[in-house]
């Protein structure tokens, strides 16, 4: 754990993975098929994590590819507006496109339609990741969807190796999305390899169950990672909160009860709040709690990146509990 605390205080992160455009049926509560207008926001797990970090005063750069078109330029402009470093973004020509999600702000039975044919972020290659300097970086955060196909898969593993060589931590958000993979078995194999090469692994009960071959084995699998080199493994259980495993101890953390306006964005917010808390010198227990609070505020708000709290809003929210 000493290595964690020594490196994390550098307070700079590189987040690898997708960013896209979300179109929310407007006003909130409107079904997609009934909507007459939509509001736009950036989305995608890596983009949302980077925004969450930046909003909480932490240095965050996004490592990905965007389409060389107005949607790609929209994503870059929005990331810049939120304070995310875009120096490691490459615009890719041809038919590759940024992801587009059409979604609703509805708490239950929420509909979403995702378009990821020829996704631009999957164009990430070894040349892109080789351009990153990790000498002053606390951690590389890899979102698991980037591992789903080539050339992004090879580039992601290359980035992880490069970060470790420079002494940076490697953080894996398992981020399993079945539509991106050829099969659950392939996803389990590749994400297992990625988890073995990571210092911090975060996932929910279904994701750890996938890696362990059954849902019942997910929790002991998460715990076992800290016996084989991982510094932290955080097992998220939805409304039941999370369990954090370290090589020496474990603890449970509850959720912050809120009136949810949508089900999306909680995991991205949790990761952002967790890492920001660690980078700012909070204890591990407090940092996990700040991750849970960030997740609560995002599901209670409109949009994911727009609902991501700054430090003042987060502190005020936590002080009420």
Give an overview in words.
With 321 residues, the chain is α/β, with parallel strands linked by helices. The protein is 37% helix and 21% strand. The protein has 11 helices and 13 strands. The chain has a 9-stranded mixed β-sheet, sandwiched between helices. A 4-stranded mixed β-sheet has the order 3-2-6-7. Helix 3 links the parallel strand 4 and strand 5. Helix 7 crosses helix 8 and helix 9 packs antiparallel against helix 10.
What would a concise description of this structure say?
This protein is 37% helix and 21% strand. By secondary structure, it is α/β, with parallel strands linked by helices. A nine-stranded mixed sheet has the order 5-4-1-8-9-10-11-12-13, with helices on both faces. A four-stranded mixed sheet has the order 3-2-6-7.
Q: What tags apply to this protein structure?
A:
alpha/beta, four-stranded mixed beta sheet, 321 residues, globular, nine-stranded mixed beta sheet, 11 helices, 21% strand
